[in-house]
């Protein structure tokens, strides 16, 4: 009995130690690609549970004639869905004008059938009163996003229909006027002003998001076509268990980021066709004091089989003060030009950390920079001391036909080096600057061909002999 007990205890201890060592090695350089970590993330992501009960929006007075205001019908649909404990709100083909936002409720699916268009009013007054939101990483009250959900469970937006922000002549012109409110919000952030006192909205010129889900759990956004957003297209704020799949974009207005997970976790982004006027995917975790104080890390994000087109393909930062970790970018390619492929950006204003970022089997055509990591973004905060930690980056399979400027860039600071970086199987046809590493530690490169692959050396001939008479 004693021997069996001892043997069992030994085996259990050995297994536990081996598992712990394996888990630690999973995130360290040189240990191979951490598929187990990725798979454990995917096992947590289910998205929304879709309701069966249906409400046809036309039965509540909505008319898809392109002129009638359909907001009252959508408000009624949400009220009925709340009473029923959830509903699939079916929007048939047609153009549905909305003079104001759609505020989602628990257990609701907005089902936009093929040919259906939600066309939102471009008038700012239709998005008042203000709601609790954030703007570039600072929490505040501002105009309501056009589709908004706060503190919800099981919410979905699906179908082949279109969501049109319709704001090229209004919100899209505000960027040049937003500076006073933008700087005031940042000062409130730095001064620790209570969020309840950070009131913007009317006259502030801070543009609303097209879709924002804030503190939501169990989210699916699938197949819809998105265009003409006033600001970021999809903002996933402090939310979790999210699937973004098959979304299509033609969103080229100012700051039309595709998908912005911020302070959010357990996310799958797959099979998305981007065509955006800014970042395709931009992962954030709050700006400066708000990020540090709330401490809501963005983590466990898988981006796969996406087609990139726009400014930057996948970005981390620059609002990342609460940290970003466990991000996988796999099997993605280009649908057109991207300025940068993978871009990690922070500075000594931000603090925070970026760790365990993994890129595998991604292809670009022509970019300005392919893989760019900087702790000195925009040259800001160099007199501050909130240095960011950037570590454990793995690249295994990254290809690009032409890089106009730099292929691989790592810029740490003297106070905090970029560390534990592994490049394998990186192939670049043309590039002006192959490698630029500054303030780094533990960088490895294997089977990397930057500027073309060198073949078998030529044989020496008589004319090559420097000593020949």
Please, could you describe this protein's structure?
With 469 residues, this protein is mainly beta. The chain contains five helices and 29 strands. The chain has a 16-stranded parallel β-sheet that branches. Strands 2-4-7-12-15-18 form a six-stranded parallel β-sheet, with no helix packed on it. The protein has a five-stranded parallel β-sheet with strand order 5-10-13-16-19. Strand 8 and strand 9 form a beta hairpin. It is globular. 52% of the residues are buried.
Number of strand elements: 29
- N-to-C terminal Cα separation, in Å? 90 Å
Counting H and I runs of at least 4 residues, what is the number of helices?
A: 5
Q: Note the beta-strand portion.
A: 35-45%
Secondary structural class: mainly beta
Helix content: 10-25%
Task: Give a short overview.
The protein contains 5 helices and 29 strands. It is mostly beta strands. The strands form 4 sheets. The protein has a 16-stranded parallel beta sheet that branches.
């Amino acid at each position: 009995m004693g021997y069996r007990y001892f043997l069992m205890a030994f085996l259990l201890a050995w297994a536990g130690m081996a598992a712990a060592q394996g888990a630690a090695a999973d995130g360290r350089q040189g240990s191979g690609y951490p598929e187990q970590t990725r798979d454990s993330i995917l096992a947590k992501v289910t998205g929304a549970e879709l309701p069966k009960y249906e409400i046809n929006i036309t039965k509540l007075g909505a008319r898809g004639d392109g002129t009638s205001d359909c907001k009252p019908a959508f408000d009624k649909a949400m009220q009925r869905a709340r009473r029923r404990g959830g509903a699939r709100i079916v929007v048939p083909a047609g153009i549905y004008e909305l003079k104001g936002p759609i505020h989602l409720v628990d257990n609701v699916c907005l089902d936009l059938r093929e040919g259906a268009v939600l066309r939102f009013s471009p008038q700012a007054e239709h998005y008042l009163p203000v709601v609790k939101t954030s703007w570039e990483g600072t929490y505040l009250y501002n105009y309501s996003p056009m589709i908004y959900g706060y503190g919800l469970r099981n919410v979905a937006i699906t179908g082949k229909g279109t969501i049109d922000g319709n704001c090229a002549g209004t919100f899209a012109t505000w960027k040049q006027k937003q500076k006073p409110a933008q700087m005031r919000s940042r000062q409130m952030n730095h001064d620790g002003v209570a969020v309840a006192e950070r009131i913007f909205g009317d006259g502030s010129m801070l543009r609303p998001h097209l879709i924002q889900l804030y503190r939501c759990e169990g989210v699916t956004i699938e197949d819809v076509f998105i265009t003409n957003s006033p600001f970021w297209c999809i903002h996933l704020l402090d939310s979790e268990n999210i699937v973004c799949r098959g979304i299509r974009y033609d969103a080229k207005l100012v700051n039309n980021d595709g998908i912005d997970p911020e302070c959010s976790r357990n996310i799958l982004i797959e099979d998305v066709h981007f065509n955006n006027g800014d970042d395709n995917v931009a992962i954030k975790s709050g700006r400066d004091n708000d990020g540090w104080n709330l401490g809501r890390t963005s983590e466990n994000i898988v981006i796969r089989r996406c087609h990139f087109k726009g400014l930057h393909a996948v970005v981390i930062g620059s609002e990342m003060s609460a940290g970003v970790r466990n991000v996988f970018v796999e099997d993605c390619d280009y649908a057109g030009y991207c300025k940068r492929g993978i871009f990690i950006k922070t500075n000594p204003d931000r603090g925070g950390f970026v760790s365990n970022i993994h890129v595998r089997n991604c292809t670009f055509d022509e970019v300005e920079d392919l893989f760019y990591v900087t702790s000195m973004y925009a040259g800001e905060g160099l007199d501050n001391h909130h240095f960011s930690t950037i570590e454990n980056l793995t690249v295994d399979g990254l290809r690009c036909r032409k890089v106009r400027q730099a292929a691989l860039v790592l810029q740490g600071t003297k106070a905090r080096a970029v560390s534990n970086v592994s490049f394998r199987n990186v192939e670049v046809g043309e590039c002006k600057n192959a490698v630029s590493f500054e303030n780094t530690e533990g960088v490895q490169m294997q089977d990397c061909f930057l500027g073309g692959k060198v073949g078998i050396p030529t044989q020496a001939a008589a004319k090559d002999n420097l000593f020949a008479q």
